[in-house]
Amino acid sequence: MVDKKTKSWAGCPVRFGMSQFGDKWSFLIIRDLMFKGRKYYHEFMEAGEGISTNVLATRLADLEANGIISKAKDPKKGSRYIYTLTQKGIELMPMMLAMMDWAEKYDDATEVPREFIEKLRSDPAKLQQELLDKLS
């Protein structure tokens, strides 16, 4: 079933993609889940990006509603939630890696470690598999 929001954005791949995850905060949350091992609300808050609590809560809810992340009660501490990437979210990895590669070329102040970029450029499939293994 296609909801009204998705239907209004369907047709153009770029427009659809941006409707699913298209702001800087959503990309940073995906980055933190995918590459930095963050999975709790407080970890996103402490990431140093300066996101406000209301924006974080909204973006997490949007990403969950769009099926990019899932939210589950923490079995160890029931008062908090664990956020994880869904298969739909994991499938954003090639795009995220391409964005990192592109940024490293054009951003003199990039924070992407040289070793990471070298792995990405020499054997992207191997790097992607290593990252996927860490998400499992």
Automatic annotation (TrEMBL):
UniProt KW keywords: DNA-binding, Transcription, Transcription regulation
Name of the protein in its database record: Winged helix-turn-helix transcriptional regulator
Residues of the HTH hxlR-type domain: 12-111
Origin superkingdom: Bacteria
Pfam families for this protein: HxlR (PF01638)
Entries under Gene3D superfamilies matching the protein: Winged helix-like DNA-binding domain superfamily/Winged helix DNA-binding domain (1.10.10.10)
